[in-house]
Amino acid sequence: MKTLLIDVRRIMVSLQLTVVLLVFGMILVFAATLDQTNLGIWGIQQKWFRSFIVFQDLQGVTIPIFPGGYLVGGLLLINLIAAHVDRFKFTWLKAGIFLTHAGLILLLIGELLSGIFQEDFHMRLNEGQTKNYAEAYREHELAIIDTTDAKVDDVVSIPEILLAKGTVVQHPDLPFRVVTRAYYPNSFLQSPSAITPASLATVGLGLSVIASPQPVTYKPTETNLISAYVELISPDNSPGVFLVSTGLVAPQLFNYAGRSWRMTLRPKRIYEPFSLTLLKFSHDRYAGTDIPKNFSSRIRLKTSDGRDDRDVVVFMNNPLRYAGLTFYQAGFENNDRTSILQVVRNPSWLVPYVACALMSIGLLAQFGIHLAGFVVKRSS
Amino acid sequence: MKKHTLPLIVGFGSLLAVAFSLTSPSNPAAYDVTGFSRLPTLVNGRIKPLDTVARTTLLITQGRQRVTTPDARTLTPAEWLLDVLYQPKVANTYQTFEIVHPDLLALFNLAVADGAGGKRFSAQQLADNLIELERQAKLAYDTDATVRTPYQRAVVQLRESVILYQRLQNSVNDTTSEDFLFHLERYERTLPSTVITKAPRGEDYSAASESKLRADMSRIFSAIDTFGYLRTVPSAKIDDLTGWITAGGAWTASLGGGRIAYAAHVYGEIGRAWVGHHPDGFNQAVRAYRQNLDTSMPTVMSKCDVEVRFNSAQPFYTSMVLYVAAFLAALVSWLKWPNALGRISFGLVGLAFALATAGILARMWLESRPPVTNLYSSALFVGWGAVAICLVLEYFFSNAVGSVAAGLIGFSTLLVAHHLALGGDTMEMMRAVLDSNFWLATHVVTVTVGYSATFLAGFLAVIYVGRGVFTRSLDASTAGALTRMVYGTVCFATLFSFIGTVLGGIWADQSWGRFWGWDPKENGALIIVIWNAIILHARWGGMVKQRGLMALAIFGNIVTAWSWFGVNMLGVGLHSYGFMDAAFWWLVGFVVIQLALIALIALPPQVWLSSSVMTRG
């Protein structure tokens, strides 16, 4: 047992392990890059990098094929720290190497942190429109809104993942339980006919539209149409089974317990303590061509407490950083009258900067020391 | 012979040759064609001289700049352009469309024997089947660009060449009528204020004929404005590029305003002189217009002059030739006359490097950009960076290894650049997100230097294998020196590719909101960094010795080539600014060769020819 522990220790601190892990890392990155043509950039991150083991679906059988990013990166981190603890003695000649590796440790941790904490949203603003929320790209929520009071909406939002799991949701603000009868991560909406199966819905739009499940797509040009049949159940006189779908533009409206309700499956929202108004979107092209030269959005930023009320301009390579969020010019549509901003919340955004500064200084120092030594030796 | 004589003679000779290539181009005939070729026009968002338009069009349609007429005269690109613009019938007989795909030839009922050099055909030869080409192209366009067959690609390419040619022909002329230019002159006479001296009016200048003329002209003008490729008429405000219009547009404006823009008038004048064989009139029109431009936009004109000089000097071509010479001289120096030939090759590399530097600087000045802006300029710069390191290595080691590597890399990167230039103008406008001189100058340049150094380490290792396996010249000290060179270069490569990648991350954070997004191009750069780190750690851990180091360095060539070109072939991601498909098989070939070289390293030591002279590591 003791010899085994010594062996493990010897392996964990060895340069051999470093090289092996680096080779694994390289193959991982290479394979993930090739896989992008199938899964798209988001899909490969989940499959290859944000995982411990990479699973591949081979004709319906899912088998593990490669260590994932967390495993390779984690082992590299352990190897790096262990090697330094075990045999590193500080000398000025090795200060560069030390800094480089300290930076690398920070970089790996930073990437882990942003993998966990970073959230991406987007904001679509027509010229003149004001919004105080951004929408998620992938996650959705089932919003059930009490609209009885014309001035205030009471919103209960249920994350998509609870629908997917089929969890029964009971919320103090809702006079009914929400039970998922069916959930389709991608679906096809059609009108009912003789050949379609009977709808699960008992009320609302679901009586005239039927959702049928489709395989999930990863193509960047296609979007998944998420649908679900949810039943609202109460001890007496349940409202019934509703169809909700990201493909349905109109919300489901109904009255229950003397109150008016609106229910819709929509992209997950994050509300901001300030509002943005798009004043003007500009799309400059090079003279006589369609090659874009610049996109920029002139925006009015207004906080609810009135402390900030000013114009800001977001353009390529010049984002707006405000209240822990960063707004980037991401796109446009609707004949240059709608601007799309990407909104990122990443509390650890500074970590890579620090890490890279450390590593660059370390490499420069190390290389400079070697080069100076070499030149001196050659000249003498 | 003294030991310096030969190197001095060679050095002086090549200097003279280079100096000659830089002299101002002269006019082959009585026409001031060179003066014409310097006139500015706006195409694809950039003001460029007509000379550049002529050259890039020829590169697109036929892959080379020289034109030979059916009666065996050789035309400069500008002369060809003049015929295209003003003598469409004549220009249509010039064989300037390259077609190599046999099915495409069959489509036009053409045989290889019908073409100049077996592959170049004239617009006339294509004329009868253009409608069928259009139909085929429509079918091909329906197929996604990445999965088109070679035939479909050839169809699309030819169709785009033909369209470009036709648009060019319609820039200042009406290709459907023989005498548009003379009707144009008649029309100009009818204008209330015109620079043409009022000649006595003939009887055909009745009010009725005048209004018919105006109606005819109006139709032709708007056709030229719609189809024409060149925006030849300068903007009234010098900074406002959107003000540049086509000659057709300027002529149309004169229908209402009664005044014709001077530039639009000049292009008619030049055309009449060219068609009517009046060298004096031609030169007069060019000179007067030029004087006018020199006062209204002197900086634009000096850029045009430099660009024409740059085009005709072809510094990268000359430096390619010099690299080959240096490579050969350095190669021979390992077998005979090491001192004299070593010096000669060092000098030639230096000269080629100076020329390439001048060429890159000229491009930077013309574009007002840092050196690397697209795939083409990255090829130039990768070669430049690697040669710079080679010069340093050669300065310290003086064993001709640096010169051989410099010759090889300098030549091959310029060759790659040459093929990339076939796509059109290499000074193109930067898409919005790339439009940042600061990041182009820092991130892109650093990463490219990292590519250079990784390639260089690989090529040095190739020299090691070649000399070791196939010659008896790799003795222990040379092998040791090569090992130190490769090791040093890998260190350098690690430094630059890492810092470059990091700067890229910062740029991405600034513009897309994430430091790292696993985009193919980012992954490519990351793979190079990891690979260099692997080499260094394997070396430090004693896992590889001399031969192992060389094998790893050669594999670095594959890694770099994939990151540089391979990721562009995936056609996904935010960075895919350099999409290309034909180069795929070149990449495969390159990889196979590198693998073969690695296999050579794995040969047992006894079969290496140098085994007797080297102490194996």
Question: What this model shows, in words?
Answer:
The complex is a heterodimer of chains A (380) and B (617). With 380 residues, chain A is of the alpha+beta class. Chain A has 6 helices and 18 strands. Helices cover 33% and strands 38% of the residues of chain A. In chain A, the strands form 4 sheets. In chain A, strands 3, 4, 5, 12, 13, 14, 15, 16, 17 and 18 form a 10-stranded antiparallel sheet that branches. Chain A has a 4-stranded antiparallel sheet with strand order 6-7-10-11. Chain B has a domain at 430-612. In chain B, helix 11 packs antiparallel against helix 12 (247-257) and helix 20 (437-470) packs across helix 23 (546-570). Chains A and B meet through helix 2, helix 4, strand 14, strand 17 and helix 6 of A and helix 21 and helix 22 of B.
Keywords:
heterodimer, A: 380 residues, alpha+beta, 10-stranded antiparallel β-sheet, 4-stranded antiparallel β-sheet, 38% strand, B: 617 residues, mainly alpha, two-stranded antiparallel ribbon, two-stranded antiparallel sheet, 24 helices, 67% helix
